[in-house]
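Sorry, any thoughts here?
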Amino acid sequence: MHTFQAKIELIGINPYVFVPDKILSDIFLKAGKSKGPIPIHGHINDAPFTQTLVRYAGEWRLYINTKMLKDSPKRIGETITISVDFDSRDRTIPMHPKLQEALNRDSQALQVFESLTPSRQHEINRYITSLKSEAKIAENVQRAINFLNGKGKFAGRDTP
């Protein structure tokens, strides 16, 4: 685990910090790659978090969301203490059974779903898996199927 201090900066509406190059190099080595999203875990001001390092506009950034740090958008310019390391744990979320059943019944929606990038597939599945009530799951599975068939929005997106 590497610990450092960084000032919270803002790009668009997203708070982030830069991770020092030496720490990035070690994380890349542990990840076995230096491209694409890289899973990490750590602590901000002693509170644990799980996040993904991403490269945007030519720079590697650790985005700081409100789950990681309360009121993070209001804390731009604040210096925080961060500990980070590569997270080798499997983050795969099994397909929600109700979503799988619906896709199996609708070959067109299944074909569109399978053509999506893995991150978009994950986004749809993660959203449905996070729901608590059976009624909300059923409602959102139907919304997802409609979305995949080009009818309506799902999870803030207009098109699959």
Remarks:
- Strands lie at 2-7, 9-11, 14-17, 38-44, 47-56, 59-63, 79-86.
- The chain is about 35% helix and 25% strand.
